[in-house]
Amino acid sequence: MNKTVIEVTRRIERRSVESRQSYLARMHRTASDGPSRSRLSCSNLAHGFAASGASDKQALSGGEVPNIAIVTAYNDMLSAHQPYATYPDTIKKAATSRGAVAQVAGGVPAMCDGVTQGQDGMDLSLFSRDVIALATAVALSHDMFDATLCLGICDKIVPGLLIGALSFGHLPTVFVPAGPMVSGLGNKEKARIREEYASGKIGRDELLAAESASYHSAGTCTFYGTANSNQMLMEFMGLQLPGGSFVNPGTELRDLLTQEAVGVALSGTNLGQDYRPLAEIVSEKALVNGIVGLLATGGSTNHTMHLVAIAAAAGIVIDWQDFSELSEVVPQLCRVYPNGLADVNQFHAAGGLGFVMSELLAAGLLHDDVQTILGSGLADFCKEPNVEGGTLGWRAVVDASLDTDIVRSAKAPFAAEGGLRLVSGNLGRAIVKASAVDPDHHTITAPAVVFHSQQAFIDAFNNDELERDFVAVLKYQGPRANGMPELHKLTPYLGVLQNRGFKVALVTDGRMSGASGKVLAAIQVTPEAMCGGLIGKVRDGDVVTVDVRSGTLQVAGDDIAAREAEVIAPVQHGLGRELFAAFRERASAAESGGSLFAREP
In terms of domains, do 359 and 424 share one? Predict the structure, then answer.
């Protein structure tokens, strides 16, 4: 094993010993020797299966027939989640064929950041994760179940499902994906058209045609943003079937994988001899594996928040220093958009997650000695599914990349270090997705231009006020201010200015996420402006330095801390934002997960 991986893991274990032991003790007390519904009264139980068929009623009335809870994020507006419409029937039939029962325990909300990007609704996005966690807990609180299948894919949905399920960590839990849409318009062409629109060279009709050719059918968006980073994490943490993340919806293989997930969940209940509760799978080593996978694949910066919140739900404490130190030793093995031109379908065809995992295991960068849904170590995940005569089969992953422009071996990586960096200084601590930025743009020292909204930036761009070197400082965008929206509306405009030869960067206490573009961006600045962070005192003309190489985030001047902060009152009403006042008041800092539940260190 790599020395740094061991040291970081041990540090997390030491830091978490008390909270982790307390969590596991709670989960062990909750586990029972028989079906949990045996604790229910006859009236309780009758309500629980009143709408079931006669055979399911009989099965649930007594004996030791396992019952699977289906927690679904289905809606038919999200392309990624539309395929889930048929999953409950598939799962129920598979459960029946295995002598079990399955019930839809509940649904959770699923918002699409692609729809709300740059719109007021994006202010609800981060907090939707905690709403999903709460909804998952409500679904499972009926205490009728022996295992859980979580149906979710996109940005806040998988983290929310996992946080909620960890409160019921005594149950075995399997995540069930639906797969990406088939490839559409190429990512290079899509980016070019967006920048042409930002420059005023083409109109809205041409832009909409390009976007519709990119996002065109059922399935997950094919760039490597938070949704597809979620899928990677679930495999690397041993919570999702090997090689199943990027199998397209509507295929025979996709259907067989869903049926297999039922069998895996049933094999891990405490009614059998191989009990595999979620609480034991989401361990310190599993979380380190997830971080390593994130770094090696150039995944979403959102997970510097989501993984912290997930870990906390399992009684484990991680921070950005852990990410940063691991990033120094984990090589970049993938180039998938926005870190390259390929999409996830091409990545999957070139070797995919199984190949990356096998390379990292061989290099001593992953813990193999972990519990997984398969009841074996991570090495058992270095395989890929296939269909043989209508039956699900498994084969070894390729032993060499099939396209070295997309994925490479650990011995010949794209870069020796991972794609996420921690920068810090008097402006606080922030995350940079360095893997998406050309090394020539990894450092900047330039005057600040301060904005309070994305629209203010766009107006300045359209008025030709930004034809120069500068650092855009966008403040009051953190969890306490307005829910911490993603700020991708800025990306094409900053890209245009960079293409014109100007040195530009972004510093913000907001987010950019997995679609972070080619412009240097220090994001998730903590402490945020709303909590007294120095970013709230930066003014136009202050000289700001962002340097990935030295890990620096600094504003020049000895008098800045003594200034009065520029107090901004973010809009906190409209489109339901007024309902989330309690979330804004209680939200933790970005490095603590930006969560309603997390406690500050």
Answer: no
Give the whole-number percent of the chain exceeding pLDDT 90.
Answer: 82
In 3D space, the residue among 425, 237, 423 whose CA is nearest the CA of residue 321 turns out to be: 423
State the residue for tokens 């973010």: 570
Cβ atoms of 302 and 433 within 8 Å: the answer is no
Cβ atoms of 131 and 160 within 8 Å: the answer is yes
Q: How many domains does the chain have?
A: 2
**Residues 6+ away with beta carbon under 8 Å from 404:** 412
Determine whether 30 is exposed, middle or buried from the number of CB atoms within 10 Å of its CB (0-12, 13-18, 19+): middle
**Tokens of residue 224, six digits:** 């490597």
CA nearest to 570, candidates 491, 509, 525, 492:
509
Q: Are residues 126 and 259 in the same domain?
A: yes
Q: How confident is the model at residue 118 (pLDDT cuts 50, 70, 90)?
A: confident
Residue 471's φ and ψ, nearest 5 degrees, are -110, 115
Give, for 508, the enclosing helix (H) or strand (E): strand 504-508
What are the structure tokens assigned to 73, written together?
Answer: 């994020």
Determine the structural domain holding residue 48 and report its residue range.
Answer: 3-182+217-396
d(CA 62, CA 39) in angstroms, rounded, equals 11
**DSSP secondary structure code for residue 398 in this structure:** P
Give how far Cα 272 sits from Cα of 33, 160, 179, 190, Å.
10, 28, 31, 51
140 closest CA partner among 115, 119, 111, 163:
163
Taking only the tens place, the pLDDT of each residue in 154-163 is: 999 999 999 9
At 64, is the pLDDT very low, low, confident or very high (cuts 50, 70, 90)? confident
Which token pair is 310? 């997930």
Measured distance CA(319)–CA(36) in Å, rounded: 35
Tell which of 334, 361, 396 closes a domain: 396
pLDDT tens-digit map of 6-26: 999 999 999 999 999 999 999
Chain centroid, CA 599 distance in Å: 20
Q: What is the DSSP string of 75-107?
A: -SSSTTTGGGGGHHHHHHHHHHHTT-EEEEEEE
Structure tokens at 58: 């009989």
Is the predicted pLDDT of residue 419 greater than 80, yes or no?
no
